[in-house]
Amino acid sequence: MKKWVFLILVFAATSGFTTHKFYVSINEVNFSASKNRLEITSRIFIDDLELALEKRFNTKFNLGTSQQKSDFVAFLQKYFNEKLQVKVNQVSRTPQIVNTEIEDGVFICYFLIKDVAKIQNIEIKNTALMELYDQQHIFHINVSGNKKSVMLTDANQSELLKF
Q1: Which residues lie across from 1 on neighbouring strands?
Q2: What is the superkingdom listed in this entry's lineage (predicted)?
Q3: β pairing state of 24-32 and 37-45
Q4: pLDDT at residue 110, rounded to an integer
Q5: Which among 5, 9, 54, 65 has the fewest CB atoms less than 10 Å away?
Q6: What is the 3-class SS of the chain, one letter each residue?
């Protein structure tokens, strides 16, 4: 059942609708033991992210256009520093943006957390876009083949996962 719900959400999130009635992001967290790091990929509707950034920073970013602000990533990092918190083994770690791209109306953001040798637990808190919408964040976490999924909402903004 979980697999079908995930597939439906992924299809809806990547199908390029210009307007939508639900507010969801799909996030993958993978632990790379060989590289000692956490790799996080977040997919979020571009129009929702742009509105949140405009309201937060009182400026227009024109995401995905030729007029996109050149310092956009610095604003995006500041926004996610406030909205996305990750603790690894009870130690706060700041996900650093390493790349972004846009695909069919979906903004994809790639984060890294370096120097992670072993994971006993991960706590994730994500409040991005919750200032605007009834936002949901679905996280799929893979630590050394141990896979877990959680959904964060306004009522449940964080989750602690033990591995």
Answers
A1: none
A2: Bacteria
A3: antiparallel
A4: 98
A5: 65
A6: CHHHHHHHHHHHHHCCCCCCCCCEEEEEEEEECCCCEEEEEEEEEHHHHHHHHHHHHCCCCCCCCCCCCCCHHHHHHHHHHHHEEEEECCEEECCEEEEEEEECCEEEEEEEEECCCCCCEEEEEECCCCCCCCCEEEEEEEECCEEEEEEECCCCCEEEEEC
Return phi, psi of residue 73, to 5°: -60, -35
Q: Report the predicted TM-score, pTM, of the whole model to 2 decimal places.
A: 0.84
Return d(Cα 145, Cα 31) in angstroms, integer.
9
Looking at this protein, which amino acid is placed at residue 95?
A: P
CA distance 25 to 129: 10
Which of the residues in the chain have pLDDT under 50?
3-8, 14, 16-18
- Per-residue pLDDT reduced to its tens digit, 43-72: 999 999 999 999 999 999 999 889 998 899
Edge-to-edge strand ranges of the sheet holding 91-93: 91-93, 84-88, 121-126, 158-162
